[in-house]
Amino acid sequence: MSKKDYFHKWSGIISEHKHEKKQINQVSKILSDWANETKTSTHLLSNFTYNSEEIDLAIILPSSFILIDLKTGGGIIKGTENGFWTSTALLKKTDKNQNAKPRKINRNRNPFLQADKKKWAFLTFLNNYNKRIFSDEKSKKVEKSFIYALKSHIVFSKEVIWDRSQIPPGTMHTDKWFDVYSIKDLIEKITPIEEEKNIQLLEEEQWSICTLLNLIYDDDKHDFSEIESKYSNLPKDTVSSYKLKGELIHTQFVDIVDENTIYVEDKDGKRLKVHLNDYFKNTVSELRKLSNSEKQINKNEIDINLVNVERKKNDVFFKNDKESLLVIEPEWLINVTELAQLDFCERQLFNSRYTLKSRNEAMTRGSIIHEVFEDILQRPEDIDGMKEKLGKSFSDRSLEFALDNLDYKGMEDYIKPHLNKLYQYRTKNPLISHIKDKDISTERFIINPVLGLKGKIDAVVTDVDGTRAIELKTGKKRWEWIDGRPTQKITPGHRSQVQAYSLLMEMKSELKISNPIIVYSGEETDASQIGETIEFSYLDKTKSMNKRNKLVLADYLMELDYEKDNANKCLKCKDLDVCQNIFSLEKNHNPNNLPKYFTQEDKFQFDDNIFTKKEKQFFNEYNQLLTEEYRVDKEAQGTFLLKDKIERLTLGKTAVIDAFQEVEINKYILNSNNDSELREGDRCLISDKNGPIYGDCLEATILNVSRNNFIISTRAKMEFIPVFLDIYPQENIFARNYPMIYELIANKENEKIKNFIINKSNPASNTMVDLDQLGTLHESQMKAIKYALGLEDYLLIQGPPGTGKTLTIAHIIEQLALSGKKVIIGCYTHRAVDEVIKKLKTHSKLEFPVYRLGESTSEEINEFSIEKIVNDNKTIDLKVQKANSIFSDSAVYIATTHKWLSGGFDTLIRKYGKYDVAIIDEASQVIIPNAIGTIRLAKKFILVGDHKQLPPVIQSEQAKDLSNTLFEELYNNDSACESTKVMLDIQHRMPEQISNFISNEFYNNQLNTFKSDSNSVIELKDTNSEYASILQSKNAIELLDVKSSNNNKNQSNQEAVKIKEILKTLLSSGIDHSRIGVIAPFRAQVAEIRRNIELELMEYFDDKASIKNIVDTVDRFQGDERDVILFSLTIGESEIPKLLQDKRRLNVAISRAKMKFIAIGDWDKALQSETLSNLKKYYDSLGDK
Prior knowledge:
Layout: E1 7-11, H1 18-38, E2 42-50, E3 53-61, E4 64-71, E5 75-78, E6 86-88, E7 103-104, H2 111-128, H3 130-133, H4 136-142, H5 146-149, E8 150-156, E9 160-162, H6 174-177, E10 178-182, H7 186-194, H8 203-212, E11 216-217, H9 225-232, E12 247-258, E13 261-266, E14 271-275, H10 281-292, E15 303-312, E16 315-317, E17 325-328, E18 334-335, H11 348-353, H12 361-378, H13 383-395, H14 398-403, H15 408-428, E19 440-448, E20 453-463, E21 466-473, E22 478-482, E23 485-489, H16 492-506, E24 517-520, E25 531-533, H17 538-557, H18 567-571, H19 576-584, H20 596-599, H21 613-641, H22 645-650, E26 654-656, E27 659-664, E28 667-671, E29 683-687, H23 691-694, E30 697-705, E31 709-714, E32 724-727, H24 732-735, H25 738-746, H26 751-757, H27 779-789, E33 794-798, H28 805-818, E34 823-827, H29 830-843, E35 850-852, H30 859-862, H31 866-871, H32 876-887, E36 892-896, H33 897-901, H34 906-912, E37 915-921, H35 928-935, E38 938-945, H36 966-971, E39 981-983, E40 986-987, H37 992-1002, E41 1008-1009, H38 1028-1031, E42 1037-1041, ...
Parallel strand pairs: 1-2, 4-8, 5-9, 8-10, 14-16, 18-20, 21-24, 33-38, 33-39, 34-36, 34-37, 35-36, 37-38, 40-41, 42-46, 43-44, 43-45, 45-46
Antiparallel strand pairs: 1-11, 2-3, 3-4, 5-6, 6-7, 12-13, 12-15, 13-14, 15-16, 15-17, 19-20, 20-21, 22-23, 24-25, 26-32, 27-28, 28-31, 29-30, 29-32, 30-31
Helix pairs in contact: 10-17, 12-13, 12-15, 16-17, 21-25, 25-35, 27-28, 28-29, 39-40
């Protein structure tokens, strides 16, 4: 018989700190020995969170709960209920220095108050879960005992002297629950507590407490055997985890045989003859267009999935009883909501794509109703909770109400009847009133790369008959004339949408899929009857799939049918102008697809020749480039998620989750042995053990990431145990570029910008305005500021590395604002936004208001956030009032270019007119449509950048021309007058050795170095280190040859280890980590270097964020600088990676260094790069200078 173990260890989130891990191990050993010796059932819980309080340790004993806050060190502890605490070291007689000074404990946070907060957080947990831990009868008896059984202690790692009288018992009875002592005194302290017998827990009740906290039992590991067996025997190209009624065959389109038959080729190269049924006959004509028309997308192979088919040798048959489906380009994921765009008119897809998106009252109302609808479905009995949710939904939109000039009080009166109807429907409709709260999930996300569909279902409800989708529409059904009278009818698009959701559910669910429901909260009928069930037959599935295929082919061909029958439909269409313009911009009109406004000139005022040849050429060229890039973004999602979990993990884009804690509503800490490339800000899918495709999943955003933990936010509550976190980049942001190429041409307000970009017109000369010398700015910086004050059309400022580009921008902003100009700034990254604000804070008196659009991760910068400033007011009235007062002021607004591109702040233009000047920082990283999104909002513009540094990141080879930026196009216009261009030509950052190479290699020797007394010698304590010679040499450039043995082309452990060793030499010599930068070309290598640092050098860093700040990709380091730069070449293959073939990236990497640049890698392979080869020659010529 095995010996019973009385000690049990549970973990929430693994500690990030070595000293804390050591203390936890000590406590575990002490408690384990004591528990087994005394035969006391003991559970130790480590590192978990409840009610936003982080608890280091909780000891669950049969008669007590003891919370422990771990502290390092010890000594004489002094502290009271308020103020900071101190510890003074206990001195030995042998200590030379007998004058020990008190030091603050835990900075300025009071340990007693922390212990008190943790106590109340855990008490809240016990009260909330009382009835789930104990029987009904016992729960009533023990509830009042919790407060007496619960203790909260401070425990130090070393010997402690603590005078309890410093905190008198008082009304808080601190003597009953609070104490301070050393780890070695733990058993002495808990033994008398356990003897008090304030409560008596059964073993199963102790276990319940741990499991209800979602902690992981340390003896348990994730059992992947079920997942492994599911995939191990499958061919790589087979997806059989879906619930299929026939075969699934992945193919490529070859040819058309006749109206019912096509040829395809399977993955083995076999030609198959596919016999379609009547439902997919139209697909043949759509595919024929691909052969006969000029394609918008240059992709030779058209992928086709044949789903639920019957295969007989080389013939494939579509069968009605198997519900066969044909999917064109399945990895091109179409959002289910887009199916409704083909409803009123097929051309609505393009009309919507090129129209600048802006919020309206109906959209805002709909969003609020949807948010509260979740609570109505899941917690119908919690009326107060719904009221609170409604209030929060309104309060969170205070800025929008001010921007859009919305009557929020009237809106609330409009919304409440909708919510009342939805409540009545939930509680009285026989289809869902009987369903328990736990059987309803909201915001359920499904992604299916086999069907090429994805979508977020408003709600999924389950009962004994099966499971069904519920879709909420906040309007009414559409009126149509049927049999000579007006009749309300559900639109085909709404039907297709909810039927497509059901199809997605059917392929994953073991349960029967019941007919879906569409609920119209705007219907004026009996509230319990506002929902209508929708049929879900094979015919409906084929209609949804044909619509989905049509949307894909629309992008291939840039073609959808115009309205050819009903001229009045066109006359009444709100998008008639857009539709006419897009028709006029077509390269060639299809004689078989002509709109009514073209064929019936008597009814329409339409001029088909309003655009010039150049304008048409620009629109079609950029439309094609954007669509090529958009396609790659869309397909990348499906391609990646179709890979098995092992491959996804190997690629570094997936993490396995071991445990999780909900810290706030829809905010979670995930415990993971993280070796992924996932980083802060990434959009992801969090899913259960079956993964994002086959299992349950939610969309998530990573708020913070470290070696052992992720912190994420989700749109809805996580109702499953998470196991996988997968990268899931959002392509919707990129789609915002489409309206800009249309706005440039069609909006007369943009005439001047259009002439510069399309017609290559020359700008007017700028005037140099007299201005007194500003501080120590050099001549070219002052020149740029003077030209900015005398701006006529535009100014281009080239800022090579270290030339004070951001400082110059800050002074330009200040001078323009002080002269009464209204200024906006757009930056490519959030980091650049923050840098501009920092420079303004440091180098100007801020005699003008400055606001950041969007919140920053920096508390220092967040004081400028308009959202934070507005939300700091308590009531919605005060918030809206504050926002309106800000907007009416002539303030400087700073945001990312994506924020200006979104159209969300265009209302300010409509209210107060165009800004005087728009400035774009990092303009050489911004594609032309993105740049238009900012400069269109102002009368004149200034672009600041450097086309010799990083270009825009473009994924598609077919769209590489997108990397030609507006900055570069205008700068290379040799006929433009000299006063429109300024190069900042004196750099203050780099040592002369580095600067000379940079100037010669990239700037035709036009970049000069500001003379200073700085040198490249790093002072070291450990002069015996093998790296002392290179760190203490006078050379500013050092090259280390390191051969890599691993096969991962984007990762080198050997280089990571070498960098870690150099870092250790620097850090152990007292060089602060903030002075060091480590750059790698690939995210995988960045992750590898960070892991090496976290494992062995954590003692030199405050936290994980500090490591992230010093290790990143070249792209993330542009605009940054450090004393020492360590550059990992990461050349794993014989050929130089494309990223290193780009001279501009190498310019950025080398030019970040203020004292020394050290490049680590395989220099035999590196010589294939022209720039790296030149660097090696230059280095060899330096000697030891």
